[in-house]
Design goal:
alpha+beta; five-stranded mixed beta sheet; Alpha-Beta Plaits
């Protein structure tokens, strides 16, 4: 399998839609910092389906060009979530450095390559891709730290018997609307593993709800519940069904 690095989350979506890759992998949630809002927003419009999920333990490293020392670093580049997950290391070891946010940890490594006095917060695997040196390993504040990724493709995954389904919906702005939207799932004993609201772009103070549930969209109970939801909600989009991930170490 060939891996094609992309500088940002939107570029991963665009690459798969354009047929440059069969699948794309994007971060959707971190166990400490919460959801990756950009990914959730892009899922709203994309024709792609979620066909898999991956859970990986986060091991951030400080990367720089070969021959660099920690004391030489004047600026650090990384994704905002990676920076937030390494606050203690930055404040203790590099309190005077400038911290610059970029679209992804891979973009940070790309920017740093060949730039004196610069470092990136990214994975050890990223160091290999961009020819950088690891100055410090496991610099994240908390070691029980996991990131969940979605695998995107034109089609989702067939049922396996151990699946999860994700969808987005919105409801009319009236009392009890969300309660009514969730009743079809509660009535069928469907376990909702996540629900959160996101602002609707271009419509101030209106919101959509992102929801994960156990089961496959082809399961009778979920098909029935989603059909009931469609009669209640003002918008429903099933993002896809996929095997439940095993937590990676």
């Amino acid at each position: 399998m060939e891996y094609i690095p992309k500088p940002s989350i939107p570029e991963v979506f665009r690459g798969v839609v354009a047929g440059e890759a069969d699948m794309g992998v994007v971060p959707v949630e971190n166990s400490l910092e919460g959801s990756v809002n950009l990914t959730l927003d892009l899922l709203f419009d994309t024709p792609l389906k979620v066909c898999g999920e991956i859970e990986l333990k986060v091991e951030h490293c400080l990367l720089a060009n070969p021959g660099s020392r920690v004391e030489d670093i004047r600026v650090i580049f990384s994704h905002p979530q990676a920076i937030a997950q390494c606050r203690r290391f930055i404040e203790t070891m590099l309190p005077q450095v400038e911290v610059v946010e970029v679209q992804s940890t891979s973009k940070a490594a790309e920017v740093v390559k060949g730039l004196r006095g610069a470092a990136a917060i990214a994975s050890e695997f990223t160091a290999d891709i961009y020819g950088l040196e690891v100055l410090a390993k496991s610099i994240q504040d908390y070691h029980d730290n996991y990131t969940r990724f979605f695998v995107l493709s034109p089609e989702d995954h067939p049922p396996t018997g151990n699946d999860k389904t994700s969808l987005i919906f919105s409801v009319p702005d009236k009392p009890g609307a969300l309660y009514e939207a969730l009743k079809p799932f509660a009535a069928r004993g469907i376990n909702l593993t996540k629900i959160e609201s996101r602002p609707t772009r271009g419509k101030p103070w209106e919101y959509v709800f992102y929801m994960d549930m156990e089961g496959h969209r082809f399961d009778d109970e979920i098909k029935e519940a989603v059909e009931e939801l469609k009669a209640i909600a003002s918008f429903v989009k099933v993002l896809g069904s996929y095997p439940i991930a095993k937590r990676g170490g």
